[in-house]
Amino acid sequence: MFERFTKDARAVVKGAVVQAEEAGARSVAAEHLLLALLDREGSRASFALTALGLGDRRDAVRAALERARRRGGLTQAETDALAGLGIDVSGIVARVEEAHGVGALSGERRGGGRWTGHRPFEREAKDVLTGALRAATGRRDRRIGDEHILLALTARPGVPAEVLADHGVTHESVTRVLHGGGEARAS
């Protein structure tokens, strides 16, 4: 499948590996794909993100991803659902971090040196890349671009989609910016 990726899409995948390395993560997650997309300039996905107003709010997205990482990767919706059952996730995180250090639930190595070696892609990251393939074939695109990775990130449930939606970037809005909407054609 990787041979069908455009130069920009390959750069996102490689950038996700770099993001995981810099974070000290043992594997590449969907959030690393999003972080790599945020670093891109001059591509279709970066155009869509900028058009949707995310260009000047990238630091806010990074901060929201960090908060989710500290919650052990739980979405805010999952945290709220657990709160409804009487489970205080922030309290649990505070106690775990008190005992094991800040970021203990993030899956990243802290204080024990950097993780070296091959970083496999987590199931959710693989699902995003498969979703990118589906997005491309659904539009009859021969190549998988970084815009297809962005569409796939917004289409599947999880922290990246939730964080993007909190910043006004949804599957529908990305589709509208990239491919136009019915109202744009009607005028």
Automatic annotation (TrEMBL):
GO terms for molecular function: peptidase activity. SUPFAM superfamilies: Double Clp-N motif (SSF81923). Residues 2-187 form the Clp R domain. Keywords: Hydrolase, Protease, Repeat. Signal peptide: none annotated. Coiled coil: none annotated. It comes from the Bacteria. GO terms for biological process: proteolysis. InterPro entries: Clp_N_dom_sf, Clp_R_N. PROSITE patterns: CLP_R. This is Clp protease N-terminal domain-containing protein.
